[in-house]
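User: I want to check something. If I give you two sequences, will you return the structure for each one separately, not as a complex?

Assistant: Yes, each is folded on its own. Here is the first sequence with its structure:
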Amino acid sequence: MIVLRLISESFNFAFSSLRQNKLRTFLSLIGITIGIMTIIGVFSAVDTLRNNLQNSVDKLGSNTIYIQKWPWQFGGDYAWWKYMNRPTPTLRDFQKVQERATSAEAVSYFVYAGNRTITYKSNSVEGAQVSAVTHDYYKTWNFELEAGRYFSDAESRTGAAVAVLGHSIADGLLPNQDAVGKVVKVMGRRVTIIGVFKEEGEDMLGTSADKTVLLPLNFARNVINVQDEQYDPQISVKGKPGMPVDEVESELRGLMRSIRRLSPTKEDNFALNKSTILTAGLDDMFKVLNTAGFAIGIFSILVGGFGIANIMFVSVKERTNIIGIQKSLGAKNYFILLQFLIEAILLCLMGGAIGLMIVYGLAFIVKLVSDLAIVVDAGKVVLMFILSTSIGLISGIIPAFMASRLDPVEAIRSK
């Protein structure tokens, strides 16, 4: 009870001092507020960016490997002169992998036919991202349908004139209409819409299906050369459930080397890309961003901490007479020490709380303006309170110690 009473009285003295010197309190808060706002703001921006990028990467599938000409790579020297001479994946490669891969649940072949204009009667939409795929594409890529269905096996094999449209394309061609069953013109050919992708919105890697037009590969073969390098052909392989992605990758490397008849001394002339490559690259990038943001924020907090230390020295000087009276009435050194420490910590916590409120306010405004959800991690909020308390202790310990060691007679006579 005595300890609680001492803490309560120390809080009362601290609050009284802060209320009596409002301008000084406000000026002391600025540095801490800016520092905490910088740290939490940078961490929130980085977490938001990472969250959006990770959502984009997740669409690629955690157990899916992409056989391509060009490898995915972050940083370092990119040997493009070596990769450009590699052959692109072919239908023969696809068929052989499909026949031999024992660790694969599904294998699909994918080509990107570029941005095209899609028409329906008098309506047209430019910039549609036309892609052609084999049947198992729906197993190797994560997407949802808003209406209709995906290609049947028979439609894929026969190259039926059907298509699945992205939400934005369907909405642009047929506003306020059911797109399923309508006939549109793609690359000069009439195709029937059998499905519409669920709206996803823009993502950080450009993998949104909103502007996609998906065609069966065997239909596209009648219009374009699906093995031409300009259409960026690639093979995607999804491993069986529970099969480690490294085992799938190891088997595919052996298969591709065998299919392309590469001798043991020759390098791979293909790339096996997977989402973990992107995740590892993102981790490295965000470590740098977090470190930079933390360094900037700590510098701002230290500046604020020096400001609070100066204010506390002034406060001790102004209240020397009161300290002498308190000590003459029996106040112990630890009581004097505690009230100044609490005052310094309160200043830092108030500054941190204001900085946090500003971050939440900005996050709310960004959400309203751009519909982008800002991530404010609870762990970072806890970090804010720990930092604020620590800076308060560091800033106030020397002034508080000096105040607690004052001689009561000299302190009373100081005024």
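And separately, the second sequence with its own structure:
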Amino acid sequence: MAAELTKRYAIVTGANKGIGLDICRQLVSQCIIVVLTTRDEKKGLEAIEKLKGSVVSGCVIFHQRHATDLASIASLAQFIKSQFGKLDILV
């Protein structure tokens, strides 16, 4: 139970390339569980594939999110609440 309490969770938006992708890589290297989000599902899943060689399995999760779509934002918030119960970092 103590290990569960010390886990940290992050969302990185626009994380399919560049700085966002590198931030994901750096966060998981610090044992932070990352939800990688993008508008485009295909690009998000490709980003997860790029990270597979450098991260522990299960430390990066993809969730599609459109910044201007309230239903998409609510879906992500519900996912975080139900899966983790908290969020520590938002990038």
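Because they were folded independently, the notes below concern the second chain alone. The chain has one domain: 2-90. The two ends are 27 Å apart (CA to CA).
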